[in-house]
From TrEMBL:
Keyword ATP-binding: no
Key word Isomerase present: no
GO molecular function: glycosyltransferase activity
Pfam families, sorted: Pribosyltran
Designated name of the protein: Phosphoribosyltransferase
Domain of life, per lineage: Bacteria
């Protein structure tokens, strides 16, 4: 399990990787829900106030997923991204399918898109630009360690 303290270290070290590479994002795009936390951290650490959220449904449970990821509304407006340098942020590149969907969406609208993740798994079809750790194990994040307080039916 990744704890909150280690998550803080991960976020800072990812930001340092981005800064050291010379990439200066105009926008940090969070893949909800897991990417919201790292996107906020990267936004603060890289002094980027323009954060966007893209909602993608893929995982339905622990290691259970749909056949393919689906972008849910509201989809970011292409006009808001035109010509921008975008840093796509997510908690984990597992299969890479979600990241591929978002990267391909961005590719049609932005000047450049790069990807930062806390964890990348070797099986991911997308190789991320910035990775804190690589693992082939299931990761329990601090924000999803406990079950929901209320369940939606």
């Amino acid at each position: 399990m990744l704890g909150w303290d280690a998550f803080g270290v991960a976020g800072r070290e990812l930001a340092e990787q981005v800064a050291a590479s010379g990439f200066v994002p105009d926008v940090v795009m969070a893949i909800a829900r897991g990417g919201l936390f790292i996107a906020g951290t990267l936004g603060y650490d890289l002094d980027v106030k323009n954060l966007h959220v893209v909602n993608v449904e893929f995982y339905t449970g622990v290691d259970e997923r749909l056949d393919m990821p689906v972008m849910l509304p509201p989809v970011p407006a292409a006009v808001d991204l035109a010509g921008a340098r975008v840093l796509i942020a997510d908690d984990v590149a597992d299969t890479g399918e979600t990241l591929k969907l978002v990267r391909d969406f961005c590719r049609d609208h932005v000047a450049e898109a790069r990807i930062a993740v806390v964890y990348e798994k070797p099986r991911s079809i997308v190789k991320c630009d910035y990775v804190w750790r690589t693992t082939d194990k299931w990761i329990t994040f601090p924000w999803s360690a406990l079950p929901p307080v209320a369940r939606r039916e």
